[in-house]
Specification:
alpha/beta; six-stranded mixed β-sheet; 6 strands; 5 helices
Length: 201
Amino acid sequence: MLTRLFYSVMVLSMAVFFWGCTPVSDNGESGNKGDLLVVFLVRHAEKVDQSMDPDLSEDGYLRAEELAMTLADANIEQVHSSGFIRTKLTAKPVAERFGLEIDLYNPKDLYTLADQLKAVGGRHLVVGHSNTTPALVDILGGEPGSAIEEKNEYDRLYILTLTKDEVSTVLLRYGKPCSSLPSNISASSLDVPQTSGSALN
């Protein structure tokens, strides 16, 4: 019951947000696609183990499906994932729902991805890692907030809306809530990975 209520409140919040942030031209129609960029950013869902390139766990597959349900009315136009199994599998249900291919990006070159998103405009899902997701939010001019807790935080969903004049950030939670998160996490891991030795969790 609480999960259903949580989901309903979250969807309502998203609907209100999109209604208020979509630009409207003088004739009442939606603004030019190139003038608006909406980016949904998530970390991959729960992984089955701590190996280099693990599969999703049972909870992870469930969360990936819940992400697709959450974004069912978001009109996603492109889905982006790093090349790891866990990120691609998290992105897959959303891509399938909208009939899209998954575009792979280099998680060690987030500036290039940010430039590509800004050039194209439209609505995008980006699936990344515990360190790259808030880092990309920061690069795009948003508010990343605290660092993602690597061990057990998988429910964070950022929504960034970029117009010519400003960037707005909304942080939501989706799927099964991640419990026991420490309250004193600092945003200390926002450095963008630049070397092949950087961990992607």
